[in-house]
């Protein structure tokens, strides 16, 4: 028979709380609850003996017993929470810290050539040009003949390309991967009347050896302006303004005479080499200059070929190499970096 006394209540409190400290499982905790606060637990048994006490001791010990009971219930629920959390963490692999932030989702980005195309077209749009696009697989007629390069003309050697094994009865001649964006000059003029101010970005292909400034596929932007009274000064003014907006005031620009069968006169435009500041190096083949575009006044035969009267209309055209301009702008030393799929290069944009 357990004697109900303050000492005994205190002894139960101290022993039970010490025992609670060492419990590590929910099963152990349940056993602790049964033996201390359950119906047959030691505290309950002590409280049952209150009836045999005088009223004053009963009140005093009843209050002490209830305080210990409330304390046991509170500690029980805290311990239960602690054990459940420990179980949750133990069920997760040690190498995972669930409180760490998640892996960032890798975001895609625009290819450096695409960004450059957008920037360059934006510069021309702000000068009043529209944007159009055309086919990469092109008829011989548009890529060469409409541009005053008849079959067997030696100028074809300037643009060796990849031929597609397909011919059409109407067109007669085979198809090819276009060597430049210039075929769009004839396609646009055939369908439109002057005034025309248009830029045409697009991919081109050439059957040629690659080096630091030559790829076998690359992107050009064609420009075409046709109207009454367009002169060579308009061509130079437009391209100077484009160079100033793209490279800033400090880069030097050079025009030289060049030959393209579809313009007369023809020029090419170069910018001084970013790698050697014009001194000559591997990137610029020791010339100090990097050619970025070909241009000229649209040849009267090309205008006639699309039904325009060259005594009324004149125009200028240009074709610029997008990767070459990106190289100059960003100091990229080898054009082959654009298409070798090295993400370390591509992620720099
Ligand atoms: C042409 O392609 C002419 N259609 C340009 C033109 C248009 C002249 C309108 C007159 C009027 P060219 O072959 O020079 O010209 O190429 C033009 C530009 O494309 C070059 O200045 C260069 O920037 C770029 N380019 C040419 N070949 C390559 C290549 N293999 N790799 C990278 N860029 C190239």
Proportion of β residues?
Answer: 15-25%
Mean pLDDT equals 90
Distance between the termini: 86 Å
* Overall tally of domains: 2
Segments where pLDDT lies below 50 for 5+ residues? Answer: none
CATH architect. name of the largest domain = 2-Layer Sandwich
Description:
- The chain is of the alpha+beta class.
- Helices cover 38% and strands 20% of the residues.
- The protein has helices at residues 6-21, 26-36, 42-48, 55-90, 112-125, 140-143, 183-191, 232-247, 300-305, 322-330, 343-346; strands at 130-131, 137-139, 163-167, 174-177, 196-205, 217-228, 253-258, 263-272, 289-298, 313-321.
- The strands form two sheets. A seven-stranded mixed β-sheet has the order 1-5-6-10-9-8-7, sandwiched between helices.
- Residues 180, 182, 206, 208, 214-215, 218, 220, 260, 263, 266, 291-296, 317-321, 323-324, 335 line the site of adenosine-5'-[phenylalaninyl-phosphate] (FA5).
- The site of adenosine-5'-[phenylalaninyl-phosphate] (FA5) has 25 residues, from strand 6, strand 8, strand 9, strand 10 and helix 10.
